[in-house]
Amino acid sequence: MADEIELKTAPADFRFPTANQTRHCFTRYIEFHRCLQAKGEESGECDKFARYYRSLCPGEWIERWNEQRENRTFPGPL
Predict the structure, then answer these.
(1) d(CA 32, CA 13)
(2) In this structure, what DSSP letter does residue 18 have?
(3) Given this model, what pLDDT does residue 18 score?
(4) How far, in Å, CA of 18 to CA of 41, rounded?
């Protein structure tokens, strides 16, 4: 039998009390990339941030932000 994948969304965050999760998504994306810079790509400590932003953010946004990071035009503080 194949392993079952447990899907979870990011936990509630008091910084984002409203139903609109746009800012929450953006913040989690930034937290993930800051963690990678601080801990390194091999560290598993950043995995939770990856799960959080992937559960909150539309795929199109993630693709665009990844392209912007590659082109050094990302609008957020990394």
Answers:
(1) 15
(2) S
(3) 67
(4) 32
Answer for the pair 10, 51: CB distance below 8 angstroms, yes or no: yes
For 57, half-sphere exposure in the C-beta direction (CA atoms, 13 angstrom radius) is 23
Per-residue CA distances from 63 to 20, 38, 78 (Å): 20, 22, 16
Domain that holds residue 34: 21-71
> How far, in Å, are 2, 47, 52 from residue 15 at the CA level?
38, 21, 14
Domain count, the chain: 1
Predicted confidence at residue 63, as pLDDT, reads 96
Across the chain, mean pLDDT equals 87
Between CA 23 and CA 48 the distance in angstroms is 18
Residue type, 42: E
The residue-averaged pLDDT of 13-26 equals: 79
Residue 34 lies in a domain: yes
